[in-house]
UniProtKB/TrEMBL annotation:
The keyword Iron applies. CDD domains: TrHb3_P. It comes from Paradesertivirga mongoliensis. It comes from the Bacteria. Keywords: Heme, Iron, Metal-binding, Transport. The keyword Amino-acid biosynthesis does not apply. This is Group III truncated hemoglobin.
Amino acid sequence: MKDLRSREDIELLVDSFYQKVQRDELIGYIFTDVAKVNWDHHLPKMYDFWEAILFGQKGFKGNPIEVHFKLNQKHPLLDSHFERWKSIFYATVDEYFSGEYAQLAKEKAQSIADLMFFKISTLGRPTQNKK
Ligand code: HEM
């Protein structure tokens, strides 16, 4: 199996990840019904995000903490949601890629997800962030 090395690889990973996310019974509706995500807009943004995280490219413009903070106010994001997000992400990486960068993608996803949940649950609305 090949490693995750190019923009094309990231596109495959991100497209496949969000296809699974949309169909997921625990978190899918947050994307499709709560946030009503415009995928034509969101997917290219996520390609840029992962290209920045993994390969240091400069294309990503956004404020993920702010976006999820607002989303959490609309609909509480729980620890269980983040755990599911991570497990789908890891499974998708492992389905297509293996190697140093595949490993890095999973480690970065974990640390960003955990930090994001920590910030949301401590600075956001603490009483709503119980499991
Ligand atoms: C249960 C967990 C999560 C949920 C429900 C969630 C949901 C969302 C939603 C609804 C958006 C806005 C999409 C749009 O309308 O354009 C978004 C944006 C985004 N998400 Fe998440 N997300 C989660 C976890 C994560 C994690 C762990 C990461 C990173 C590792 C991440 C990275 C991003 C980025 C980079 C954006 C774009 C931010 C921007 O536009 O500035 N998300 N997410």
